[in-house]
Amino acid sequence: MNFIPREEEFDFDEEILEQGELISDKLNMLRLEQYPPNALKGLRQFSSVEVADFLGVTQNHIKKLHLEGKGPAPDVSNSGRRSYTAQQMLELRQYLDKHGRSDFKRYVPHRRQGEALQVISVVNFKGGSGKTTTAAHLAQHLALTGHRVLAIDLDPQASLSALHGIQPELDKNPSLYEALRYDDDRKSITDVIRSTNFPGLDIVPANLELQEYEYETPLAATNKSSPEGRLFFTRISTALKEVDDRYDVVVIDCPPQLGYLTLTALTASTSVLITVHPQMLDVMSMSQFLLMLGGILQSIKGAGAAVKLKWFRYLVTRYEPIDGPQAQMVGFLQALFNKRMLKSQMVKSTAISDAGITKQTLYEVEKSQFTRSTYERAMESLNAVNSEITTLVHQAWGRK
Ligand SMILES: Nc1ncnc2c1ncn2[C@@H]1O[C@H](COP(=O)(O)OP(=O)(O)O)[C@@H](O)[C@H]1O
Ligand SMILES: [Mg+2]
Fold first, then answer.
1. What contacts 368, CB < 8 A, 6 or more positions away?
2. Cα–Cα distance between 79 and 57 in angstroms, integer?
3. Are residues 169 and 262 in the same domain?
4. pLDDT in tens, 257-306
5. DSSP output for 272-303
6. pTM beyond 0.70
7. Which atom of ligand 1 has the smallest separation from the CA of 357?
8. 111 in ligand 1 pocket by Cβ < 6 Å?
9. How far apart are the CA of 130 and the centre of ligand 1, in A?
10. In a shared domain, residues 58 and 176
11. Domain span at residue 333?
12. How remote is the CA of residue 365 from the centroid of ligand 1, in Å?
């Protein structure tokens, strides 16, 4: 019989820490090579077709303004194509409101008297259900259509931050945790807001520190001398009050778990988007999520903090309509949830996943990088989803 030497035992914690450091060092080196540390992300220009789409005017109208020397001056290519920066698109809105016949339409859609800040949380406890992709494209679309937007990355994995050129390991960015923490080091949310490469879109980045909130909240809740922990669910809404007049819409990318971060986001929300990939395992996981969430919301209600929403919707993500079982699943969900389903779905597209590889959204990449039909199909689906959500936001304000 062969004698098999027994493996030495080792301390798991030491090994894990060592390997964590190893991989983090290597990743940092890779990132440093790819992106210099303080490189600011740029943003491409938008063609007059896109500008007309985002503003809701005709291309001719835009052309006419330019020819008459009115509004911001676009770049004009040799072949006569006009392109505008995102900032110029916002200026064009202001110009149109000031000089156009805008008695029936407002081009700058900012909140008016009596219209409350809209806070949209994107949730699901399944990773990969498209939360971050949805949150990023929604926040950017709202900004490109003239809204003042704050995106909050609440996932310690910081994917939404990364999409906006913020690298958690390199930059050591303060996260929303700084505005939520229970000790005396708490900061104002205004100290953790950063601007992005999209004019009109600010972001609160995420980092691993957010995880602290999950440990500290139950401890604070048992602290008899202070009610703060028991009232944890008001912490994000309280933080947001400080910047209420600066934004129209807040989009929160929630972590893939039903912890205190997600619950605190939900209790601050006016609306909720539940992302769902239409496959059996994902839908089964979502049904568990709904049951758990419902139970927790009821106990929060018992504690005096009922979550009241203007709307909530399921959004089908990464959808492949030619896949029979997926199409069936979408039909099933539509029959079940009916008016709670967004009418448009986010189709699966290599344009979205390829853009993601270079930490970009579809609104950032150049069309010429893709097959025209691939790009256009993805953009069409994306804009349909985002326009539907924008309509819900405007309806929540009581607009037509
Ligand atoms: N519509 C889509 N088409 C193709 N790939 C997608 C699409 N939506 C998301 N993905 C990809 O799927 C992965 C998971 O998406 P993500 O938004 O990060 O999910 P979550 O935030 O729920 O974990 C990412 O790599 C993303 O690029
Ligand atoms: Mg995510």
1. none
2. 22
3. yes
4. 999 999 999 999 999 999 999 999 999 998 999 999 998 889 888 888 78
5. EEEEE-SSHHHHHHHHHHHHHHHHHHHHHHHT
6. yes
7. 27
8. no
9. 4
10. no
11. 118-396
12. 16
